Amino acid sequence: MLQFTSLLFITNAIHAFSRQYIFYAILLVLLTAGSFAWHSSPKLEPDSMKIFWMDQAFIWASIAMSIFYASQMRSQTYKSLLAVFALVALALSIYLIFGTSWDHDYPTEHATLHIIACMCDHFVIAGL
User: Fold this and answer.
1) By C-alpha distance, which of 115, 127, 86 is closest to 9?
2) N or C: which end of the chain has fewer CB atoms below 10 A?
3) What are phi and psi of 7, to 5 degrees?
4) DSSP letters along the chain, please?
5) CA–CA distance, 128 with 125 (Å, rounded to integer)
6) Residues with pLDDT less than 50, the chain
C-alpha cells in the first residue's frame, strides 16, 4: 500500500511542472522515487539504510521548499486549506512518532500521511 501512495507525489511533480516550477517539480520527482524505493526495500538490510536516508533528505528538502512557496501564496483560501491539512499532518506525524511502536508497521496511518502531504503540496502549487 505504501508503494502506491508514494506514487501519489508524482501528481505534485506534474502539477508543479505544469505551473513552471521546474526545480520544485524535480524535487517532487526525487521524493516520489525515494519514497517508492524505501517502501519497496527490505528494511532489515544495511544497504536499505542508504535508501532511508536518501528518502529523508528528499522529504525534508520538499518540506523546506513547500514552506518557502507557501510563504509566497496569494490566495487566503488556499492558505487556510493548507493550514488545516498541515495541522492534521503534524498531529498524525506526532501520533506515528510517539503513539506507536516502531516494531510494527502502521501502513494505514502512514498512507494517510502520504495523501495529506500530497494534498498540501497541491494547495501550495495551486495557491501560487
Assistant:
1) 115
2) N
3) -70, -15
4) -HHHHHTTHHHHHHHHHHTT-HHHHHHHHHHHHHHHHHHHS-TTSTTHHHHHHHHHHHHHHHHHHHHHHHTT---HHHHHHHHHHHHHHHHHHHHHHHSS-TTS--HHHHHHHHHHHHHHHHHHHHH-
5) 5
6) none
- Whether 58 contacts 112, CB under 8 Å: no
Residue type, 27: L
Q: What are phi and psi of 100, to 5 degrees?
A: -125, 165
Task: Give yes or no for a contact between 28 and 121, defined as CB atoms under 8 angstroms apart.
Answer: yes
pLDDT at 107: 83
Do residues 89 and 59 touch, judged by C-beta distance below 8 A? no
| Alpha-carbon distances, residue 4 vs 18, 20, 39, 110 (angstroms) | 23, 26, 9, 12
**Which amino acid, residue 14?**
I
Sign of CA dihedral 80, 9, 30, 24: negative
